[in-house]
UniProtKB/TrEMBL annotation:
Pfam families associated with the record: ATP-synt_8 (PF00895)
Subunit structure: F-type ATPases have 2 components, CF(1) - the catalytic core - and CF(0) - the membrane proton channel.
Family of this protein: Belongs to the ATPase protein 8 family.
Protein name (Swiss-Prot/TrEMBL): ATP synthase complex subunit 8
Membrane-topology descriptor: Single-pass membrane protein
Single GO term (MF): proton transmembrane transporter activity
Principal cellular location given in the protein's record: mitochondrion
Parts of the chain that traverse the membrane: 6-29
Superkingdom assignment: Eukaryota
Species of origin: Lepisma saccharinum
Gene Ontology biological-process entries: proton motive force-driven ATP synthesis
GO cellular component, one term: mitochondrial membrane
Amino acid sequence: MPQMSPLNWLILFLFFSLMYLIFASVMYYNTSNQQPKSTMNLIKNINLPWKW
C-alpha cells in the first residue's frame, strides 16, 4: 500500500491552513458591527430625570 510522502502532507497542511486563514479573514470583515437603529433611538428617547 503506497503512502504519501511527508512533502505531500506538508503541502496539504499549508493549503488547508491558507484556506482557513482566508475564510476567517473574509468572515471577520464581512460582518457589520452596527447597532440596530431601533435600539439607538430607544436609548436616545429615554430621558431619566435625576432625583437627588
